[in-house]
Amino acid sequence: MFALTSVPRVALRASAPAKQWAAASQSIRHASTLKEAVAEAIPKKQERLKALKAKHSNTSLGDIKLDNLLGGMRGLKVMLWEGSVLDAERGIAFHGKSIPDCEKELPSAKDLGLKGKEMLPESMLWLLLTGEVPTADQVRGLSAELASKGKLPSYVEKIIDSFPKTLHPMTQFAAATAALNHDSAFSAAYTKGIKKAEYWSPTFDDSIDLIAKLPAVAARIYYNVHGKGDGKQAIDPNLDLIGNFSNMLGYGDSVGMTDFLRLYIAIHGDHEGGNVSAHTSHLVGSALSDPFLSYSAALLGLAGPLHGLANQEVLVWFKGMQESIGQEASDQQIEKYLEDTLASGRVVPGYGHAVLRQPDPRFSALSRFYEQTPELRDQPLVKMVQQVSKIAPVVLGRSNKIKNPFPNVDAASGAGLTAYGMTEMNFYTVVFGVSRALGALPNLVMARALGLPIERPKSMSIEALEKSLK
């Protein structure tokens, strides 16, 4: 079986005459399932890694300075992550494709005959795992596979139902995810004695199973804590992953909310491997913990206020601004409020980024959605988000201390959820958690396919540093 063509389908259609395209289509056999496509992609990756090791194993990637050690290892090139690369100037690229590229090329809801027009997270998952743009039929098959595996086992439902409503949704989410490892294919195979070269296969099976079930876990928590949703986590085999997720949450009648969730989850899925949630899944997985345990740990990292909770802080700040200067504030009033925020020693949440030195393309994608969606365009909160995004970079840019004055994705993500009626901010990070699995779990599959070792950096005490630096 041949791998999916490396030439983008859009480019082929645009440049090839009709007869050539027909002939090319007949000569290419597409993998019918994602697992087949991954199996085809792995040998190529293994050969490329083998060649790198043989030629460059002693090549330096840069010096480690004390600032790196004490500054959270920021910027150090010490991790292999296949799904995406984050560049300070160009932004995020998924196997070389930017977010605008993905929006043009990845199969969308419309391509599958569904209501809506945004790219599907299933399409992004296929790209992240294989490096190839899937066909609409391949995505349709993947959607059906995820739907068939989406129902929760009764014991997990009982575990979720036993949690007090006051327990934070992210704590519930992580605990329920860990409990799903009861049926881990990888754990069972490892116990029986599987060959190391085959580790990737049951890791893939667990990962797909978990991605399929995360929406139901999240929806049951939403229903128990906030009383919204169908309370049954019913799954329609004819819908895509997010179509079912939206139904479970009680927003299935809103084409806008469903499409917004598709975009939100697709663009939040992967953001290089160094962020806390992605790195945690990689670290725990390197000990050969199964995907359920590895991703449960990742969710606990995502729950921190310096990571996944950031969009809540943005909304709190925006609501404070609305209360102070009103919902229809002028540019001058907003500029003054921004200046007062900085003068008080506070930061403007949702602005700046650890890596990026340009506007976050994820923010741009959400901003585009808002502009193109009449029901959101005139929402007071959405209007203010858009308005601030034009003023804040100018105000922040006046400070020599601020390296990136541009909005990041957190500046926009919460506004859309709020505008569509999901006002429960403590649930936003759960939605983020459904998304981040699209990037973290494929990395686990590739880490096992490429035989990556357990992660074990060297640590040093202050005394040891003092002695070594004399």
Automatic annotation (TrEMBL):
Any one biological process term the GO annotation gives: carbohydrate metabolic process
Chief location bin: mitochondrion
Keywords: Mitochondrion, Transferase, Transit peptide
Protein's UniProt keywords contain Transferase: yes
Pfam families, alphabetized: Citrate_synt
A Gene Ontology molecular function term of the record: acyltransferase activity, acyl groups converted into alkyl on transfer
Location within or outside the cell: Mitochondrion
GO cellular component: mitochondrial matrix
Ribosomal protein listed as a keyword: no
Family named by the database record: Belongs to the citrate synthase family.
Protein name: Citrate synthase
